Amino acid sequence: MAPTTTNTAQDPQALLNTFIDRRSIQLVSVLGVGAYGVVYLGVHVPTSRRYAVKLLNNPKAAETEITLHSRVSAHKGVLTLEKVVRENNQVYLVLEYATGGDLFSAITQQQGIASNNFAIRHIFTQILDAVQYCHQQGIAHRDLKPENILMFSNLQAKLADFGLATTQLVSAEFGCGSSFYFSPECQGQLVKNKERIKGYSTRQNDVWSLGVILINLTAGRNPWRQATMKDQAFASYVKRPQGFFKRILPCISDELNDLLLRIFCLDPSRRISLPELRLRIQYIRSFTATNEKKNASIPPRVIAKLPVEVEEAKPSRSSAPIVSFTQSLVHTLCDYSNGFSDDTFDGFFDDDDDEDDDDEPAIVRRAFVVKSPYPAPTAQVPSTPAACFSTSPCSSASSFDYPSTPRASPAELNKKAAIDVDALNHLSFTTF
Fold it and tell me: In whole angstroms, what is the distance from residue 382 CA to residue 112 CA?
């Protein structure tokens, strides 16, 4: 039977075993439910091919998601939007089905990613390339998190869920995204002069989110619950950034620690650019302190050491209006960043709340919003060219402009150690 207009928010099961797209796709099970709507497992009747079918609660708001996702859908690192079906006053997005679930599950179910240098590098580079492509197409994702990275065989990762994506370079839609992952400026905080900022860079916000994902991959933890001075862990970072990550995440290497200071630069205009971030990821010898000390190959099966709980977090999306990229807003951002220093961040944010949170890394938790493999190479990674990277935690490099992703030359590729593809079979993956 054909689906009828139903309140799926109240009963996601209501459309099971119904058909869409001229009865060619059957909705057979519920894959996920959120404020955005429901995702079903759909089966194409003539071919038995599986799809993820996303039914959106707000058809009008869906048009932006459809437009932006379609613009980048052809990239190999972005989940393919196969088609859009409009039936019975409802909008269905027919999406590529991810056979390996999401990255959140891959991390928390201890599938050999944490402490595996090659797996971390391989997955994170794919995410970086997808995000940079989106930025080059004029799109900021604004909801980067492991739940929105979908996994396939051979540790292939694809970016999904463009429900919060925007073409705005600067937005006043504060609190947009998932609280564990959005940047401090995205929350519209007060600064030294007690004036609230009027907008934030959507691309720089994406860079911040990528940093949290990198910590998730490496340590299986979050560095803080929310990047606000109300969070004691984040407040500790603001006041004493240099030793913060090594203190709360002793498992990370010195190389990664230095990189995290560049990613989590509080001045958004001086935060690391995506091309530099990608280059530094390629040159990191080890992401973890254990492997850094051993300076040896990663064993084929490595289990994350830290326990992880899964707990849903409340969605967050502000109703604030989008602002255009005007000259006055540029000045506002400049005023916002003038209070930062390479040496001290103490006192920049307005800290009116004395709430006590534990100064401990937060457990990785599943976050929902309104819109919501191989062993490491045995050869040494080439020495990092000092001229490529800034030595300051906050360099003057800005990621408002994104040149093409650096590509290794054939000569450079020949220097890299050959990776044993067959070794993939020795890793323990429960869903890939």
Answer: 25
- How many Cβ atoms are within 10 Å of 370's Cβ, its own excluded? 19
Partner residues linked to 29 by β-bridges: 41
- What does the alpha-carbon distance between residue 256 and residue 280 come to, in Å, rounded to a whole number? 9
Main-chain phi, psi angles of 301, to 5 degrees: -130, 110
83 is in an annotated binding site: no
Model confidence pLDDT, tens digit, residues 144-193 = 999 999 999 999 999 999 999 999 999 999 998 899 999 999 988 655 55
Catalytic (active site) residue 254: no
CA–CA gap between residue 68 and residue 139 (Å, rounded):
7
Query: What are the structural domains of the chain?
Result: 20-96 (3.30.200.20), 103-426 (1.10.510.10)
DSSP state at residue 270: G
CA dist., res. 162 & res. 204, Å (int): 17
- Per annotation, catalytic residue among 21, 102, 129, 143: 143
The tokens for 409 are 């030359």
Q: What is the pLDDT of residues 109-136, one digit of tens each?
A: 866 788 899 999 999 999 999 999 999 9
Q: How many Å apart are CA 130 and CA 141, to the nearest integer?
A: 10
For residue 276, give both structure tokens.
């530099």
